[in-house]
Design brief:
This protein has about 450 residues and is mainly α. The chain has 23 helices and two strands.
Length: about 450
């Protein structure tokens, strides 16, 4: 989601699925698209990449529609929804608790999440952003900043490059399984996954205990799953199946492997098995995301709330609140989805974790037909985390959602060919609202 290792001690996997909308009791009303709520999960990464190959997409059709394909432009009067009302736009900049309370009252929003209070959560996040003063505790010393925990703290804050530098220093001073694992996480964060894998394999080859080997295998399984390398993920899982030192890590890693294969029912069972060994943030959060993607929204919401109670740092808040936002979008409610994603942005801090809620805001905007806002959020996501393509470490309730985020992500990095290919996939994908938005985007790319 952010972001961090998806093991039983820390991290987040973000699963999106989507739809719309919340009618405002004022003149502005956002139309609700007629789309299925419980669509099939995204295919495997290899299948998705093959589906997005620009040459295949452009050569297999010879029609005279958009971009030289069979896809016709939207007929007059059949445009996508007009977009998000101005009142929602204004809240996508770290809203205060007061602003959220006023917006919820104006739109008549009731989240019905038990003891969870969105305004109180926003107030807590707002207080955490308050600048330090002389009355606050003294900051940590430089010596403490160079301690072995320093890279993990920087990753938690979303300072990925600083975390990588600190992890390299720590590994240089004391190479071994622990510092190697931390360095591998940071390398993967900035896109150097090949080097991260080599480091994990090196440390595993010389690890002296099963405990160390298990954590290295689990991290390797995570990287391989989220990069779409199912064969590598299966090998790491096979190694874990033979271990007894950390019994929760085997079903947890199996759940990750199954999730990225689109086998959500089996993934749920594996996460539940992992939770039989103890409840922790990562397992609660990931199970919540699987439930949300499968359409079990009430179950997902409770799991997210429980996970947020365990971990309210920037990565945890960004992940759980974005996940909660997704459950409302998937249930057809744009306004609460937007408010929750904006609150997630407040919790994400000033670092790279902002990319997760901005991806969610982009998906909400796309579903509401607001292409300009979706593109703006994708650009902002790239500014805070140029290593995030908006879809890695995520799975979706409908394949068009992944393709749409790939499209705005490609536009944000200036890759028009990849954007065109992704929009063509969305236009063909059968998601009513997103297909209409894709046709508008293709008119821009293929005038």
């Amino acid at each position: 989601m952010r972001r961090s290792i998806l093991l039983a001690a820390a991290g987040s996997l973000t699963l999106f699925g989507a739809w719309l909308v919340w009618p405002r009791p004022a003149p502005v009303v956002v139309a609700r698209p007629a789309v299925a709520r419980h669509a099939a999960p995204r295919p495997s990464a290899a299948t998705a990449e093959a589906a997005l190959a620009p040459r295949d997409l452009l050569q297999r059709t010879t029609g005279r529609g958009l971009c030289g394909t069979e896809i016709p432009p939207l007929p007059p009067g059949a445009e996508a929804p007009a977009g998000l009302p101005p009142g929602l736009h204004a809240l996508a900049v770290k809203p205060t608790a007061k602003q959220l309370s006023e917006a919820m009252a104006e739109w008549g929003i009731t989240l019905e999440l038990g003891d969870f209070d969105l305004a109180a959560t926003a107030a807590m996040l707002e207080e955490r952003r308050r600048p330090r003063t002389a009355d606050d505790d003294e900051p940590e010393s430089d010596e403490a900043d160079e301690g072995p925990w320093r890279p993990e703290q920087l990753r938690e804050q979303g300072k990925l490059r600083e975390a990588l530098d600190a992890a390299r220093r720590a590994y240089g001073r004391a190479p071994g399984p622990d510092t190697g694992l931390t360095l591998a996480q940071s390398l993967d964060d900035v896109g150097d996954t090949a080097e991260a894998k080599r480091l994990l394999e090196l440390e595993r080859s010389r690890a002296e205990t099963e405990h160390d080997r298990v954590w290295l295998d689990a991290q390797l399984g995570f990287m391989c799953s989220t990069r779409g390398d199912a064969a590598c993920s299966a090998r790491a899982l096979a190694a874990l199946e033979r271990q007894t030192a950390e019994p929760s890590l085997t079903p947890f890693t199996r759940a990750l492997h199954l999730t990225f294969l689109g086998r959500l029912d089996e993934a749920r069972q594996a996460y539940e098995e992992a939770m039989s060994h103890g409840r922790d943030f990562a397992t609660l959060n990931n199970l919540g995301e699987v439930e949300a993607c499968a359409g079990r929204l009430a179950e997902a919401r409770q799991l997210y709330v429980d996970a947020l109670d365990m971990r309210r740092g920037p990565d945890g808040a960004a992940s759980t609140l974005s996940g909660l936002a997704y459950t409302y979008l998937r249930d057809g409610d744009v306004a609460p989805a937007w408010l929750l994603a904006a609150t997630a942005l407040s919790g994400a801090g000033e670092g790279a974790h902002q990319s997760e809620p901005r991806a969610m805001l982009s998906l909400v905007a796309l579903t509401a037909g607001d292409l300009a806002e979706a593109r703006a959020q994708a650009r902002l996501a790239r500014e805070v985390n140029p290593y995030d393509d908006l879809v890695r470490r995520r799975t979706f309730g409908h394949p068009s959602e992944a393709a749409a985020l790939k499209a705005v992500g490609a536009e944000a990095r200036g890759d028009q060919r990849a954007a065109q290919a992704a929009w063509l996939e969305v236009a063909r994908g059968g998601h009513g609202a997103l297909s209409a938005v894709a046709r508008r985007a293709l008119r821009d790319l293929c005038p």
